[in-house]
Fold this protein.
Amino acid sequence: MKAQRLARIALAAILGLAVAIGGSAQPAASAKGKPRSACQKLAKRYEDVAPGRRLVTVVRGDDETGRISACVLPRGRVRTLASWDDGLSRDWAKVVATAGTWVLVEQGHGDQYGGVSRSLTRFGVRRGQRLQLSGYGCQIGFDGHNCPDGTDFGEVALAASGAVAYELSDLAAGTTMLMAVGPGGAAIKLADGPIDELRIAGGQITWTQGGVARAAPLPR
């Protein structure tokens, strides 16, 4: 009797251990078998030019055909920020800066007939926000005259909040100023005239103008 009782106890213990192991192994197996998201696949397959751990920004293709894509790990939607496909190396795009879940992209065009364009756009990758900060497009004649209107940009700095500070030139007026744009898109002018240096650090925009250092808080 005593031997039978010990055998039953041992069998119950073995069955209990098997159930415990099976129950603990099942979530691990499920987690391991969970398919990668499109964002995770993008990060694994291509070189990520964004230094942040959450934002993935990829430039694919060559000077004739390509695209810039971005997403937020782990399962954010993959968004196309820019693409070009004219087969003649006339259109192009490049990443100017990344911070947080935001990307600044420059796009341009130049053809043999004197057609030129250039733009700067801020993208909020998480929600798909898009805001053009500057842009011009025109036909330059053989006399070399500049574009009559539109805006162009110079120095640029981007914060993790999405705030941007950038040097903006009005081509029609022939003026240059330092602008700042908050995460929501509200713009303010910080200074008139060209600047020498520009950066964002510690919640402030700092720049040098005429050899004098200046600063302003980031717009919210």
Notes: The chain has a mean pLDDT of 87. The first strand starts at residue 55 and ends at 61. The first helix runs from residue 2 to 33.
